Amino acid sequence: MPDAIVAEGLVKRYGQLVALDGLDLTVPEGTVTALLGPNGAGKTTAVRVLTTLLVPDAGRATVAGIDVLRHPQALKSRIGASGQYAAVDEYLTGFENLEMVGRLYHMGVQRSKERARELLERFRLSDAADRPVRGYSGGMRRRLDLAGALVANPPVLFLDEPTTGLDPRARLDLWDVIEELVAGGTTLLLTTQYMEEADRLADAIVVIDHGKVIARGTADELKTMVGGDRIELTVDHVDKLAIAEGALQGLADGEIHLEPGMRRITVPVGNGSQALVDAIGLLAASDVQVRDVGLRRPSLDDVFLRLTGHEAEQYAAGEASSNGSGGAKAAERLEATEGKSR
Ligand SMILES: Nc1ncnc2c1ncn2[C@@H]1O[C@H](COP(=O)(O)OP(=O)(O)O)[C@@H](O)[C@H]1O
Ligand SMILES: [Mg+2]
Questions:
Q1: Which of 38, 65, 103, 245 has a CA that sits 20 to 30 A from residue 301's CA?
Q2: What is d(CA 121, CA 128) in angstroms, rounded to the nearest whole number?
Q3: What residue owns the CA closest to ligand 1's atom 27?
């Protein structure tokens, strides 16, 4: 499969600050890659370079087969971009906004109107089509912004933090829309601070921090990198914990963790589902009754913490404080992960 996006050694400095520090990236045609990183990691800078809005200090990039630096004008009609800085006009209606985009692409009056109607329908905005955008909810604005990026039917799409700031319902809604979109074969580079967003939407994940790639792979590969799965078992009696520990030693891929108060034993393992079957067999053979059993895959939050040594959320001050519990949650998770790795 040819690559729809190729970036090699992209560097962008703002004075002393290095926003991109030799970023390499490839996105095969028809696939979705998530550029995952905390606030300030360089995601928007990368998207701006790849969409011709910003000239890098070093490196090269090709999008849809076109050299981004040499032929920016030729590239413009082949890409769509939307996200963090919504390009919608507050005082125009949804319909007028999309129609205007069509006209900017020289699509002609008739075709522009048709396309606007089509997209409003597809993004469930038909009912709001003739209302000014200033009355739209956050989720509706994002959908309109996304629709705007699709007016010219670009084969390559860039979405910069498409769901940041949306409530959970609007986020799920937008995920559905994005999934439909990529099912149609569009190549997508998506930036996000949300591990579950990358997990849900992307074929491949590129984790960046301080303008550099710190890991790449599928969600599963990244999770495995952190140490695979964890089996959590509750036994019938606290006295059986030591027996269980002995029986499961051979399966463990790291240190076994005991919580006597909960009668619980946590075992890090390589292949979770197979190990789970084996564990139950071994415990039965040792005459240990199992009350409850669970398999926990490490979250992408665990991945980020392990790779960078800091919580992803600690950067996202605005986001975290909006629900008032971001910091506390982050601290809790930090403890949970550290506890299990010891
Ligand atoms: N126009 C600018 N002038 C100076 N510094 C900038 C500018 N744009 C971005 N930066 C800095 O570059 C770094 C990367 O920013 P950005 O690409 O916006 O990160 P992200 O989108 O991942 O949050 C940050 O430290 C940011 O403060
Ligand atoms: Mg950004």
A1: 245
A2: 10
A3: 40
Can you read off the two tokens belonging to residue 30? 């028809």
Distance 192 CA to ligand 2 centre (A): 8
Residue pair 49/22 in contact (Cβ under 8 Å)? The answer is no
Alpha carbons 73 and 51: distance in angstroms, whole number: 10
Beta bridge partners of 290: 235
Counting ligands in written order, the one closest to the CA of 165 is 2
Output the CA–CA distances (angstroms, integers) from residue 261 to 234, 238, 241, 258, 335, in the order listed.
Answer: 10, 8, 11, 9, 18
CB-proximal residues (5 Å) to ion ligand 2 = 43-44
Encoded tokens for 315: 């950067």
202's tokens: 């992307």
Structure tokens at 335: 């403890």
**Ligand 1-lining residues (CB < 6 angstroms):** 14, 17, 19, 37, 39-45
11, 13, 14, best to mutate for ligand 1 pocket (most atoms within 8 Å of CB): 14
Q: Give the predicted TM-score (pTM) of the model.
A: 0.76
65-77 pLDDT tens trace: 999 999 999 998 8
Please, what sign has the CA dihedral across residues 243, 292, 229, 296?
negative
User: How far apart are the CA of 278 and the centre of ligand 2, in A?
Assistant: 45
Which residue is closest in CA terms to ligand 1's atom 18?
44
Q: Which ligand is nearest to the CA of 19?
A: 1
The rounded Å distance from CA 38 to ligand 2 centre is 9
Per residue in 23-63, pLDDT (tens digit) is 999 999 999 999 999 889 999 999 999 999 999 999 999 99
| Residue whose structure tokens are 């981004």 | 68
From the number of C-beta atoms within 10 Å of its C-beta (0-12, 13-18, 19+), residue 335 rates as: exposed
